[in-house]
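At this stage, I needed to go through a protein sequence along with its fold in token form, as given directly below:
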Amino acid sequence: MSHENTNWSQSVAGVCIKDGCVLLARHTYGSGKGKLIIPGGYVEIGEAPQAAVAREYMEETGVTVEAREIIGIRFNARDWYVVFSVEYISGEPRSDGDENSEVLWVDISEALEREDVPALTKSMIRQALKEKPFKRLAYEGKHEPNSLYGVE
């Protein structure tokens, strides 16, 4: 990631579920060091959040995904964080050798019980399993890509 192009107040993550397993990465730094978390990261300046989550997945895990529904949003005075459910497209998980030390598919039940999976990750996995409250709605706006999410 190019630090001069990073929007430090916008971040994204995604929950990828395939065949009863969730893709998690073992974080190597900060408060999440040693924990298995959902992949994600900062949005680049001028980048749409959906594109950012796909880019972050590819950079961190080697897996191609496509953003689907929004399953969680956190706002505070400093920044915002949006979590998407993401659809697995292709690729074999691998560590980036920097931000994570391993990337693996973990059985959903096991992930929800493990002590090395933090509460936020568990919460977002549970949300991904629910009927999605926010759906992408048709919208023709001025800027591409146009994204409007709401409850239908």
Remarks:
- The chain has a mean pLDDT of 90.
- The first strand starts at residue 6 and ends at 18.
- The CA atoms of residues 20 and 107 lie 6 Å apart.
